[in-house]
Amino acid sequence: MIPRLGVNIDHVATIRNARGGDYPDPVKAAQIAAKAGADGITAHLREDRRHITDLDIKRLGQEIDLPLNLEMAATDEMLAIALNAAPHAACIVPEKREERTTEGGLDVAGQHNHLAHFVRALKENGTRVSLFIEPVQAQLEAALVLGAPVVELHTGAYADACNAGQHGEAKRILDDLCAAASFGMGEGLEIHAGHGLTFDTVAPVAAIKPVRELNIGHFLVSEAIFCGLFETITHMRKLIAQSRTGLAS
Ligand code: PXP
Predict the structure, then answer these.
(1) Is 40 domain-assigned?
(2) In a 10 Å sphere around its CB, with 0-12 CB exposed, 13-18 middle and 19+ buried, how is residue 109 labelled?
(3) What is the pLDDT of residues 178-235, one digit of tens each?
């Protein structure tokens, strides 16, 4: 089965917010993503609203037919918004104000008591919950204890190692991703992956058999500047599909 592609449109909003106006419109980007064959739209409403805004989330819910995956920190403010918006899915991520992007996975193992309430409330509201974690067995075990049906494995370190030409390190992290994915699937978790993936780095992750969904954003929006969003997403989908025809996990 070919992994679904969730297109993260945060950085369309980053460009819009650079001038404080209405364009480029992330909802228009989501519409193009739908035409290009995206399986879902992902958006991270950050505490500081540096890219996606509350109005974007509302409009994405109203104007887009694809399932919405809301990335959110485990805070009371975000929980209230998620319960009101009732997106198809919510991915709980760690969030630090000073970080440029989501730098590491959630410490599910260390934060069980804090996270339990969020997972339960979202699930009861009909939202599919995922936890964004490092590919570490203890984190998957903690996700299972919490009753989260999905984990998203953080691929940022793998992507960074690839980009730095550290092939041995990239292979080591890829092995961790494979092991975590196999363990999680064996325990009944749905496995997603994402962060930092590009045309050059997506295939080995997409080829990990248990991976059912990839969430990709920054590279797609970056490449769209040169090639257009539709063409960029179409090509990414092609690479993901090809990864399942030749490679094994
Ligand atoms: N998955 C999660 C949970 C994320 O937080 C992000 C970044 O918002 C992504 C995937 C996409 O990462 P990138 O924009 O680097 O492709």
Answers:
(1) yes
(2) middle
(3) 999 999 999 999 999 999 999 999 999 999 999 999 999 999 999 999 999 999 999 9
141 phi/psi in degrees, rounded to 5: -60, -40
C-alpha 119/C-alpha 215 separation (Å) is 20
User: How far apart, in Å, do the first and last CA atoms of the chain sit?
Assistant: 13
Looking from the CA of residue 215, the nearest atom of ligand 1 is 10
User: Using alpha carbons only, what angle is made at residue 234 by residues 228 and 235, rounded to the nearest 5 degrees?
Assistant: 90
Query: Is residue 249 a part of any domain in this protein?
Result: no
Q: Given 11, 51, 154, 195, which residue is catalytic?
A: 195
Locus of tokens 């887009």: 64
* Domain-embedded: residue 205: yes
CB distance 157 to 151 below 8 Å: no
| Selection from 174, 175, 201, 205 nearest residue 192 by Cα | 205
Looking at residue 2, what DSSP letter applies?
P
Residue closest via CA to ligand 1's atom 5 equals 102
Report which DSSP code applies to 49: -
Distance CA 241, CA 134 (A): 24
In angstroms, the CA 187 to CA 150 distance is 11
Pairing of strands 89-92, 128-133: parallel
**CATH classification of the domain holding 26:** 3.20.20.70
Domains held by the chain: number: 1
Residue from 11, 51, 71, 223 carrying the catalytic annotation: 71
Measured in degrees and rounded to the nearest 5, phi and psi for residue 20 equal: 75, 15
Catalytic residue flag (residue 44): yes
Task: Look at the chain and count its residues.
Answer: 249
**Domain assignment of residue 100, yes or no:** yes
* pTM of this prediction exceeds 0.90: yes
Q: Which domain holds residue 131?
A: 4-243
